[in-house]
Amino acid sequence: MSTLTQILRTTGLAAAVAVMSTAAHAQTVEVPFYFPVAVGGPITKLIDQYATEFSKEHPSIKVTPIYAGTYQETIVKALTAHKSGTPPVTSVLLSTDMFTLIDEDAIVPIDGFVKTDADRAWLKSFFPAFMTNSQTDGKTWGVPFQRSTVVLYWNKEAFKEAGLDPNKPPTTWDEQIEFAKKLTKRDASGNVTQWGMQVPSSGFPYWLFQGFTTQAGAELMNQAGDTTFYDKPEVVQALQYWVDLSTKHKVMAPGVIEWGTTPKDFFERKTAMMWTTTGNLTNVRANAKFDFGVAMLPAGKRLGSPTGGGNFYIFKKSTPAQQEAAATFIKWITTPERAAQWGIDTGYVAVRPDSWETPAMKKYVEGFPAAAVARDQLPHAVAELSTHENQRVTKALNDGLQAALTGAKTPEQAMKDAQAEAARILRPYKK
């Protein structure tokens, strides 16, 4: 005789209903969560800790982090799983993956999980600059989490040695060249022992380039993600400036500069200034054996940097219960206190203004003012390059940038060719 039958016979229907209700409540909703990092290291420990804390507070939801490699590897794995019918319930992927995920019908809008006044206040709580890569066509598709901008780092000791004020970074394009000339060192044979500056051109060349184009007053794409402007005169001007740093002014190494080794070159005093992500802030603080500064990127016609980094997305083929559970987790992990602590622990920009008003963040910024630079740059920031067929459209630009930086093409021809290729790819998406 079953337990339910026994209960029905001995205590009646009410007790049976109570038992079934308790059993249903005890069922755990599983939320597989793809996170873009290789296995191991401090980031995984932080994420594991968040998942454990959340499950303690929400015993009916089990969040399971799955470390899926780089951002590129993670989206490939997520889309492969989506096509096979077993996608993650949620994942942190690049904000620029938004159009790709929409085109693959892989994600659901976040708006469907915004039901109360508190939910609406939460969705409005993020920095507007981060929402430009999170919304399109009147809907919100991603929630900002680990976001960044490009910033300038400089070696204060190198500035002193060059006769520059160690507390005053370059603030304009002209000053950047002038300072970099004074900071470039050569030995008796004329070989460079310290470059004035480095702007990486591998890995994410389009992203660093967007710093130059924004400062030149240009946008690289429209908000609908179906048009690029690679061949505009201001874009060509921005690329010419970048190329001239090495070919004309001789303040930066010629050819392609590696993204991954640029911070190491900075630590080893092979370059006195570098452009890189604010996400490297914790790394630089831990490894630079000299006083360093962090500043907004120097202005051309205007100040500016692209935003960057990852958003949370919720996948369409998961169950309604899983989607609701994922939304609960995303709201939980992006509270002001947790957004602040994530920024402190990683160097990413805390994604909502009120997180900067928390006691922990105020104390952190008081002791390390450089942490606030990326936040202060946000009013001047623009959306990172993102379109339909984003990887192919971005590759067209990256190929053009490499061609110009290596001298294979003039900046004008490189951008003309990149625009022609991007326009060809995007033609089917024109509305």
Brief description of this entry?
Belongs to the bacterial solute-binding protein 1 family. InterPro entries: Bact_solute-bd_prot1, SBP. With 431 residues, the protein is of the alpha/beta class.
CATH architecture classification name of the largest domain: 3-Layer(aba) Sandwich
Spans of at least 5 consecutive residues whose pLDDT stays below 50 are 2-8, 10-25
Q: Level of helix content?
A: 40-55%
**Helix count, per DSSP?**
19
- Tell me the overall shape: globular
CATH superfamily of the largest domain: Periplasmic binding protein-like II
**What top-tier CATH class of the largest domain fits best?**
Alpha Beta
C-alpha termini separation: 65 Å
Report strand %.
5-15%
Average pLDDT confidence is 92
Number of strands: 12
Q: Structural class, please?
A: alpha/beta
Plain-language structure description:
It is found in: Periplasm. One of its GO terms (cellular component) is periplasmic space. This is Carbohydrate ABC transporter substrate-binding protein (CUT1 family). This protein is of the alpha/beta class. About 45% of the residues lie in helices and about 15% in strands. The protein is built from 19 helices and twelve strands. It has helices at about 5-10, 15-25, 40-55, 70-85, 100-105, 115-125, 130, 155-160, 175-185, 205-215, 235-245, 260-265, 280-285, 320-335, 335-345, 360-365, 375, 390-405, 410-425, and strands at about 30-35, 60-65, 90-95, 135, 140, 145-155, 185, 190-195, 275, 290-295, 305-315, 380. A hairpin with a 2-residue loop joins strand 4 (about 135) and strand 5 (about 140). Helix 18 (about 390-405) runs antiparallel to helix 19. The longest helix has 16 residues, at about 40-55.
